[in-house]
Each structure stands twice: as C-alpha cells, then as structure tokens.
Design a protein that fits this description.
Blueprint: H1 2-24, E1 36-43, E2 51-57, E3 62-70, H2 75-88, H3 98-116, E4 122-130, E5 135-141, E6 147-150, E7 158-161, E8 179-182, E9 187-192, H4 194-197, H5 208-218, H6 224-239, E10 248-255
Antiparallel strand pairs: 1-10, 2-3, 3-4, 4-5, 5-8, 6-7, 6-9, 9-10
C-alpha cells in the first residue's frame, strides 16, 4: 500500500511539473507582429524535458525568437530549461544583441555547472527581427540549422539551411559569430530540435532532415499552424508505436 501511495504521489508530482513547464512555453504565438505569422508545437518525451522556445517582445519594432534544447531530458533538463527561459525573459537591454545575450547565458550555465559540478550543455538558436524591415541578426550555438524556405524565388521554390552552427553553450567560453539576414515576404523559417529528425522507426531508421524538408515543400501553401501539425503527426506515425526517445519541438515563422 505504501509503495502504491509513493508511486501515486510521484505521478502527481510529475503531472504537476509537466503542467508548470507547459505554462512556461507560450500557448500562442504573438499577434502584435504585423509582418509575421508563426506557430509552434512541443511534445516532451517524459512529461517534462529540456526543449524550449519563446517569442520575446523587445520594443515597438523588434522581437526575438528563440529555440533551444538542454542536453538530456526529464526533470533535470526541465529545471535547466526553466532557468534559461527566466534568464532570457529578464528584460535587460542585451536581449536585442544576440552575441551578448547568448554569451551571458553561456556564463550563467558555466557558473551553474561549476556549482553543481556537472556540465550543463545546451543548444540554442536566437534571432532578433526588426518587424518593419525584416532585417534580422542571429546566432546559432550548436543547434540544428533552421530551414529557410523561399516561395517567392523566380526560379521556383528554394529550400536551404539557414546560417552556420557553432559550439554548445555551458561547456567553455563562448565566442559565436553573429550573422545577418533580411527576412523577405514569401520566406518561411522552420526551426526544430533534433528530437524531430532523430526520431526512430520500428526498423531503427531515423526520420531525418530529408523527410522534414519534403513536408516543408509539400505544405508550401499551408499555414504555419497546418505545417507544424503535419510535421508532428508525420513524426508520430513514423515512430509506429515506438517509444518517444527525445523531446520534439518545431516552430514556423512566415514573413508576409
């Protein structure tokens, strides 16, 4: 009886932790960005996990979009994810400068790792977008490269990786390269965590980047909401009943 009670309390605690973590993630994408339409979906593999994403309003004209993945999953990863989101939401002026905010985040993770004597690696993609012009500055610290889909190209659809990726955060001093892009009308940015592309089928085949790219092309005329649902459903079907091994997150932003 006692063992059953402990198990039940553990399950209740895990369910509450899952609800609290879900509350940290934005339930809807911002509607006050007149030149962007966005959608996001997240599925943790153990109720709680280390994937995260956010939309941060910086000022009247700028917003930041972030997606990241704390290495590992479960309760420890979820606690780290909450720490990271709290840091990014702290409101200081560095949020408009990707290199500085990500360097500061790296310092925080290293300091925390030193205190608990465990390295806390994390991948993150952080981009600041100027809504009127579409000019964006971004930095990628060890995260899967987003897909930039250009449906307005005169030679047909253009599908390509977005930017380069540097080292994970939380390991050593971070000196990332900030990059610039002008987000044009007709372009679609697809951000995701490796739980999407590394999902396994019953035959141990990975979902892979090519399947994701194929869905992006096939859903060229779909809304961001439809695309994120299509990807999550496709990954779930691909697993064929196999246990989910990692957290899965996808975010889609259209420039209009």
């Amino acid at each position: 009886m006692m063992a059953h009670k402990v198990t039940s309390e553990h399950e209740l605690d895990l369910a509450l932790a899952s609800e609290l973590q879900a509350a940290l993630l934005p339930s809807t994408c911002p509607h006050d960005c007149p030149h962007q339409i966005a959608a996001a979906r997240n599925r943790m593999c153990a109720g709680v996990g280390g994937d995260f994403y956010d939309f941060l309003r910086l000022n009247e004209y700028q917003f930041a979009l972030v997606i990241g993945d704390v290495v590992g999953h479960g309760v420890r990863a979820s606690l780290m994810m909450a720490q990271i989101m709290g840091f990014l939401r702290s409101g200081h002026e560095k949020r408009s400068r990707p290199t500085e905010i990500i360097s500061g985040l790296n310092d925080m993770l290293i300091e925390l790792g030193d205190r608990i004597r465990v390295v806390v690696p994390c991948s993150i993609f952080y981009v600041v977008v100027d809504s009127p012009s579409g000019i964006c500055f971004y930095i990628n610290a060890g995260h899967p490269r987003p897909i930039l889909y250009d449906r307005s190209d005169g030679d047909g659809d253009v599908l390509k990786p977005f930017g380069t990726s540097s080292m994970l955060l939380g390991v050593e001093e971070f000196k990332g390269d900030e990059m610039c892009h002008t987000f044009m009308p007709g372009q679609r940015l697809v951000l995701y965590t490796d739980g999407i592309t590394e999902a396994h089928s019953p035959s141990d085949e990975q979902f892979g980047i090519e399947r994701l790219r194929d869905i992006v092309v096939r859903c060229a005329g779909c809304t961001p909401d439809t695309l994120v649902d299509t990807v999550m459903n496709a990954v779930n079907e691909f697993r064929g009943g196999e246990e989910q091994e990692d957290d899965q997150t996808i975010v889609v932003v259209d420039r209009i």
